[in-house]
Every structure is written in structure tokens, then in C-alpha cells.
Amino acid sequence: MGMDAEFWLSRWREGRIGFHEGRPNDLLVSHARALGPPGRVLVPLSGKTEDMAYLRSLGHEVVGIELAEAAAEEFFREHGLEAAPSPRGALVERSAGGITILQGDFFDARPEDVGAITAFYDRAAIVALPPELRPRYAAHLRELAGEDAPGLVICFEYPQERMAGPPFSVGEDELRRYFPAVERLEDRRTEGPQSRASGIDMRERLYLVGGHRAEPI
Ligand SMILES: C[S@@+](CC[C@H](N)C(=O)[O-])C[C@H]1O[C@@H](n2cnc3c(N)ncnc32)[C@H](O)[C@@H]1O
């Protein structure tokens, strides 16, 4: 198991999950329509986010992928759902009420493990990964979701040299290297404990990526 995995598992073990919002993300609520009609939405690096329940409430089936067993267990327990674990490829699947969480390493998930995905939603996922992992992450995400699936991606942008991630700064130029079409839907100032402490200007930006062809067919 890599160092990065151990970093996240220890955060779950110690309850250091400040990233967990405990309610649907407001940018998702404002723009969920961009994910298309009810389908099957992939939520990479899902934690136990309420966004999965929110997407389900819109009629989507939801597939989260998350390293920490505690996150998967807590999600279903907190929603009063029974979800027994069973093996799914290299991961462990728990599924109830239209929501599946595949517990294990995102990079070990295969397309046949997640099923036919219509859209994806990345909050605190690409920005949780160090620069050297992000190209691989994006390529794997596109492999799992399919080339035509649209995705909503929430990024932070700030002077990386002034603050250590995560969350890391991921700019629009970088996203354009990974995804065929990138449209910025929101751009606002934000702050977190780290950026506040260091007096850093931090922006939060929502993008719609992929899913639309450059030329009409
Ligand atoms: C910053 S948290 C965000 C969780 C969730 N998206 C949210 O908004 O609350 C990042 C999550 O990614 C998980 N994670 C990190 N690396 C992973 C990997 N390689 N495979 C699966 N999950 C991973 C961590 O355990 C953690 O729960």
C-alpha cells in the first residue's frame, strides 16, 4: 500500500475528515442538471459524501469509489441502509437503495466493476491527489466513465508555492490537458483553515468537462 493510501486511511481512522460537508454541495445542487437525465453517476474518491444521496434523490444510480472501509460503512449506516460487503474484482462492493460504494483503490477498479456510467462528479477528488498522480487519475476516470460522459469537477486554485496541499491547486490549463472539453461554470473566492492561516487568496471553480463534442454530428 502506497504512502498516499496510508495518509487517507489514517485520516479516517483519526476522524480528521474536515473535507466532509455533511450536506449536499451547493455547487452540485446548482448545476446537477448538467449531468444529464437520470443515469448512473460515478463519484470517484467519494468518502461518505451526502452528494451521493443527493444524486440518488434526482433519480440517478450512484457508484462511489472509496479507499476507506469506515467511509463506506458509515455512509450506509447514517442513511439507515443495510449493505453487506461482497467482492467485486479487486474491490469490495456495498450496495443499497440505488447507491453502490466500491471500497478499495480507485486505480484497481475496472469498467466492468462500475457498470455503464453516464456522468461523473468530482469534488475533493482530483484536488486531493498530488501532481504526479493526477494524469493517471484523469485517464483512469475517463476509462471508467467512458469518453462521452460529462463530468462536473470542482477545483481549487491558489499559489501552490505558498501552501502545501491537499487540497492541491488545479487550474483550468491542467484540466484541459486531461479532458476534451472544459467549460467553467462557477468561479468564486473561498477559504479553508490553511489558506486563512497563511493569508492566501483561494478560488473555487466548477467546471463541466467532456461529454460534448467539438463538432455537431
Ligand atoms: C478529500 S476526501 C473527499 C471525499 C469526498 N469526495 C467529499 O467530498 O467528501 C478524498 C477521499 O479520497 C479517498 N482516496 C484517496 N485516494 C484514494 C484512492 N487511490 N482510491 C480510492 N479512494 C481514495 C480518501 O480516503 C478520501 O476519503
Automatic annotation (TrEMBL):
Reaction equations catalysed: S-adenosyl-L-methionine + a thiopurine = S-adenosyl-L-homocysteine + a thiopurine S-methylether
Keyword Cytoplasm in record: yes
GO biological process: methylation
Main location: cytoplasm
EC annotation from Swiss-Prot or TrEMBL: 2.1.1.67
GO cellular component: cytoplasm
UniProt keyword annotations, A-Z: Cytoplasm, Methyltransferase, S-adenosyl-L-methionine, Transferase
Enzyme class, first EC level, given as a word: transferase
GO molecular function: thiopurine S-methyltransferase activity
Name the record gives this protein: thiopurine S-methyltransferase
